[in-house]
Design brief:
six-stranded parallel β-sheet; Rossmann fold; 18% strand; binds 6-phosphogluconic acid; globular; alpha/beta; three-stranded antiparallel β-sheet; single chain
């Protein structure tokens, strides 16, 4: 197996309840560790199935989320109230299920700006919020999903140049192979500077790509580039997604 910079842990959950418990334990650990360091807990969100899973984990955990700040590891370039918006997906879900989480706790992209400006502006917001305007800010936790093509955030295998970005922390994406075509996304320098990065991947249809990304570290898949420099990488999988990596 190729080497990693980070410490890597796999958590295999036998049922959805177990997976939610694992996710809630991760949230507890990361938020408690953050509390020892500073006033807020910064967490980067992804879309897809994570919206529901995270909602269930937060409901189960009864954690105090009042000092948490929610960012978006990627966002679709649509209006905030559009059904494609990842912010809208969380806000809609949490309004009824987690009403204690306030709108002011979301640091969202301003998609009224032109796409390039929207990405640059989000990078600036991240830097201001995380208090590091000169170097790369450090998230406490990034929660990532992975598509069947091995994409993560909005870093797609068809757009390998996005993986080579070294200066910008948030970039615009055009012609995304997965609709909608315009997006913004965190880049690897920001992702790999996080303290904790966790992938949550479910479903037997992803078992092959899970093996190729997390065991073979096959760099044709963007998710295989995630390797937090001084951080912890966790892969949370259900029995289906993990079937080819656990003997
Ligand atoms: O913006 C998007 O299109 C989604 O956020 C997407 O990137 C998602 O995170 C992955 O495809 C995994 O999604 P699932 O966990 O639902 O398979």
């Amino acid at each position: 197996m190729p080497d990693r910079k980070c410490s890597f842990k796999i958590s295999l959950a036998e049922s959805e309840d177990k997976l939610i418990e694992t996710l809630s334990n991760l949230l507890r650990r990361c938020s408690e560790q953050a509390k020892d360091r500073k006033a807020t807990f910064s967490i980067g969100l992804s879309g897809g199935s994570l919206v529901q899973l995270l909602t269930k984990a937060l409901r189960k955990s009864t954690l105090d989320t009042s000092n948490w700040e929610f960012f978006f590891c990627d966002e679709r370039y649509v209006a905030d109230d559009h059904s494609d918006s990842t912010f809208c997906a969380y806000r809609t879900e949490w309004l009824s299920q987690l009403p204690s989480i306030l709108d002011s706790q979301f640091v969202k992209a301003d998609t009224t700006k032109l796409l390039d400006e929207c990405a640059a502006d989000y990078e600036a917001r991240v830097k201001v919020k995380l208090g590091n305007s000169h170097s790369v800010p450090q998230f406490d936790l990034l929660l990532l999903g992975m598509g069947p093509d091995g994409h993560t955030c909005s870093l797609f295998p068809e757009q390998p140049a996005t993986l080579e970005e070294t200066s910008r922390l948030v970039i615009p994406i055009r012609n995304s192979p997965k609709p909608p075509p315009e997006r913004i996304t965190f880049t690897l320098p920001l992702i790999n500077n996080a303290r904790d990065v966790a992938f949550v991947v479910t479903g037997a249809s992803k078992s092959d790509v899970v093996k190729r990304v997390f065991v073979d570290q096959d760099k044709q898949f963007p998710a295989a580039w995630v390797d937090p420099t001084n951080g912890q990488l966790t892969l949370i999988v259900d029995a289906g997604a993990g079937s080819q990596i656990i003997s």
